[in-house]
Amino acid sequence: MILTFILLIALSSTVLAYRELPLLVDNADLLTDYEEELLDSQLESISEKHKCEVAIVTVYSLEGKTAKEYADDFFDYNGYGYGEDDDGILLLISMEYSDWAMSTYGYAITEFPNKVLDYMADEFIPYLSSGDFYGAFLRYSERCDEVLTQGSSGSAYDTRKTLGLVPRLLISLGVGVLFALIITEIMKAQLKSVRYQPAASSYVRKNSVDIRQRTDLFLYSRVVRRAKPKSTSGSSTHRSSSGRIHGGRSGKF
Fold it and tell me: 224, 40 in Cβ contact below 8 A?
């Protein structure tokens, strides 16, 4: 009897070998049926294309866990991950206290380092905060596709290359203003007949001053030391309750 009980406990906490749930699990009911269908199809396509599962899970409560713990456990105990190495990334949204977390495993830990995860979060958090969950999940899935596509080419994902409409407009405006200022300064310079002279000798009448002796007097020196910034481009990892190593990020929206 005791042996049977121990066996049941062991089976209940075993990491599943195969996924039994869809890549989109909307337990918090944030999406319409049509939105769910579109997103799940997109996630399946991206996952199959890159051999790395991209998943989204929404819940109301974290049931006493942190968002990171919940995301890791949901990934592990529900069989998420592609292939023998269970490569994948999962985005968790909890509505009770506006928590989010991304959990990475296997190959995805390398492809989604901290810098990339932070960049992705900056992309979808504004959508979450405004209640546009479908828009947030689209943005997340699109960025995952871009990161994995770049990774398959053998180069790291450049978080600077993708700019939204507003940043592009601001950059264009800034370039226009800078160009206008340069033109204005050139025109102003052409109107001046008297200009600033960098050397004092320009203001002295020739042969009116005769300096017979010159001496250089050292006053003081100044040394400035700056700390060399440490690299933060890698992935920070942690161990989940199943004992497996995960990467990821978490926060509030």
Answer: no
Q: Which among 92, 3, 95 has a CA at the least distance from the CA of 56?
A: 92
Q: What is the pLDDT averaged over residues 135-155?
A: 90
**Mean per-residue pLDDT for 119-138?**
98
Range of the domain at 53: 16-162+242-252
241/69 Cα distance (integer angstroms)? 8
The total number of residues written for the chain in this structure: 253
Environment class of 126 (CB within 10 Å of its CB; exposed 0-12, middle 13-18, buried 19+)? middle
Give the residue, 207 or 28, on which the prediction is more confident. Answer: 28
The Cα 77–Cα 15 span in angstroms is 5
Return the C-alpha torsion angle 83, 89, 94, 98, nearest 10: 180
Q: In what order do the strands lie in the sheet with 245-252?
A: 24-26, 53-59, 88-94, 99-105, 245-252, 237-239
Give me the mean pLDDT over the 160-182 stretch: 57
In a domain, 77, yes or no: yes
Check pLDDT > 80 for residue 81: yes
Answer whether residue 44 is part of any domain: yes
Q: Would residue 199 count as lying in a domain? A: no
- Report how many domains make up the chain: 1
Q: Is the pLDDT confidence value at 106 over 60?
A: yes
Asked, for residue 115, whether it belongs to a domain, the answer is yes
Mean per-residue pLDDT of the chain: 81
- pTM of the predicted structure, to 2 decimals: 0.67
**CATH code assigned at 37:** 3.10.310.50
In sequence order, what are the beta bridge partners of 132? none
Q: Contact at 8 Å (CB) between 53 and 155?
A: no
CB atoms within 10 A of CB 245: 13
